[in-house]
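seq as requested:
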Amino acid sequence: MNTPFDQEPHRGPGLFAGLRASFLTGIVVIAPVWLTIWLIWSVVGWIDSAVLPLIPQRFQPEQYVGINLRGVGVVIFLIFTVIVGWVAKGILGRSLIHFAESLVNRMPVIRSIYSGIKQISETVFAQTERSFEKACLVQYPRRGIWAIGFVSTTARGEVSQRAETGGELLSIFIPTTPNPTSGFLLFFPAEDVIILDMSIEDAAKLVISAGLVYPNEKDPTTPPE
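struct tokens:
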């Protein structure tokens, strides 16, 4: 007969707990792969549905192959985009773009939409020289508190001239967590900025994960030395 003072014997994890742990582990492995494949497949299908209707029926690949080949629209879109980009780099292309934009700028509503989409496109597809240079540590919002930042450029013009610093001034973007696309643009003296060895991608992962994912493959919970 058991008394209230008797201790329960130690029990190992049951079958259900083991199955549950294996299931969650499988979800962690499968979910990223499945979502990536699904996203790529959906984007390819969306591009096909937008591009293929613009092609005359007699030139449709389905007329010759007999089946609907997924991805043909993507290939056509890539070729067309490369040709447009090649033409746009020339003098004639730049002149045509300038003329078209001058017409768009005269249309009140369309002007605002086009300007916004153009700024987003230039930001997303910017060349490497416009991207962040390095990840860094700065003391923000006060001394003694450190924040991850990204060095964008060296401050120039009026900002550099009017700032009361004797040395170089760096433009630092301080991202927010978990959305690193928003944040603050701050200007720090170069001597107050600690440049990190980690890549921009690793620093972004650290910000997005709220400090849970460190750039250390051996032990993600331990910062690199």
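The first strand starts at residue 134 and ends at 139.
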